[in-house]
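User: Small ask, check this?
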Amino acid sequence: MAFDYSKLRGKIREAFGTQENFANAVGLSMTSISAKLNNKVEWSQREINKASEILKIPDNEVFAYFFTEKV
């Protein structure tokens, strides 16, 4: 199953400008962030919590950012 991270990518650009800045803020490598956003590696629950916190994503919107399936 593949997820659509376009909304998450937009939030990252809005908040950090680049994926690299976001990767540094969340404590992951740029390679790791790229793999996750391209559905090559799954996000862990801890990573989702950390990313949601630093991106200020409300709990009731987390699903829309991390679990929307690609059509």
Notes: The chain has a mean pLDDT of 97. DSSP finds five helices and no strands in the chain.
